[in-house]
Amino acid sequence: MTITARPGAGHAQAPPRSGPSATPRWWGDAGGVAAGTTLLVVTALWVSHGGLQSVGNGGAGAVSSAGRLFGLWASDLLLLQVLTMARIPMVERAFGQDKLARWHRWSGFTSLWMMIAHIVLITIGYAGTARANPFAQLWTMIGNFPGMLLATAGTLALVMVVVTSIRAARRRLRYESWHLLHLYAYLGAGLALPHQLWSGSDFVGSAWAATYWWTLWGVAAGAVLLFRLGLPLLRNRRHRLVVDRVVTEGPGLTSVYLTGRDLGRLPARAGQFFQWRFLDGPGWTRSHPFSLSSAPDGESLRITVKDSGDGSSRVASLKRGTRALIEGPYGKLTGESYQGGPVVLLACGIGITPLLSLLGELPYRHGQATLVYRARSEAEIAFRPELEWFAAKRGVSVRYLVGPRAADGSWLPAGHRDTDVDALRRLAPAVGKADVYLCGPDAWTEAAQSAARAAGVPAARLHTELFSW
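Above: the chain's sequence. Below: its structure in token form.
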């Protein structure tokens, strides 16, 4: 086939760009230590206020004291949950969105169960002291204790967020609906603050406790305001992205090319994604995560969107000059840790987009890269001209795997006789010594990742990022 295009379908041909500097490894360690330290601090505050002594004394006081501890842990985890999704650049670069999302979900479920334990134990303890019925005691606390009505409303908001975050519930919701409901977590966290201020002895029991909690609340609120609102506003004002053109890449697959001002200062790397809003009419407030499908060149950006029926279909009708708002960049599926040598990229479906951008940025030598591209049909294979350009100009070995899905747990299409591991070694003989990048649907990515590990790829050379919500 004649080579008809080069990366970006019109981007100037240039050497691979290195992008922003690599993330220091100690950032992740420091973040983990800081998170663990907060839980130790609140436990120490509970002990200093007689919590351990009350448990040792037994009786209703012991139950109430245990409830206080669960409440402190729940509050601390709730604020850590807010911080994991506050889009703090240092945290994003250290851990990546998929890992932060897992921790966010884990801390959310854990903090809710601890909050329920707090409510139950405090109610039983207070009822035991007052020799009252626990249900009557709970009603009395809600109606008479300062801040408890607000705390109850906040708890209900958090319960709604957690219930809609269960996998079965998420599958029944559109992304936009889920995202809107998820914002109620901020409301729930905010409504809990007055209760702690007015009724929480471990919050106002000492100057140290008050200083700690005010600091943690301030950091969480400040991070959200600064990085979820302030930084995006600054970047959108500086870069002023607009749609330059829209190109159909295949059935239900559309690329959007965008230009703007001073894009060389946008700290984006190939493989990363942004949250996008296009000012094209009603519904523009709902953001969508779309990956860069070509390496940033300092002059323009390209994203490629699959029509998934959740608002992404509007992308195909965007007009030239439409303003785009961004949040990001996010993600760790980048080449920042690549030190040279063989590269293997495994893509499935729309997962080709970040890997295509990585093909343009990674500084591999001629013949060192292999791309294995899985698609359900020939019609769904996108970017053939660009892939042929990479094959001709940079020696990339492009392998297509076409066909319906095989059995569960396999990354291969139906009809392959090889095992998952043998097929990977046949398609990419250097896989055991390569940096391996994977992107695709969750189940497929997990199967491909398992095959790569079995083929001898060390964890440090296996790069993937899941994009499910």
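The first helix runs from residue 26 to 48.
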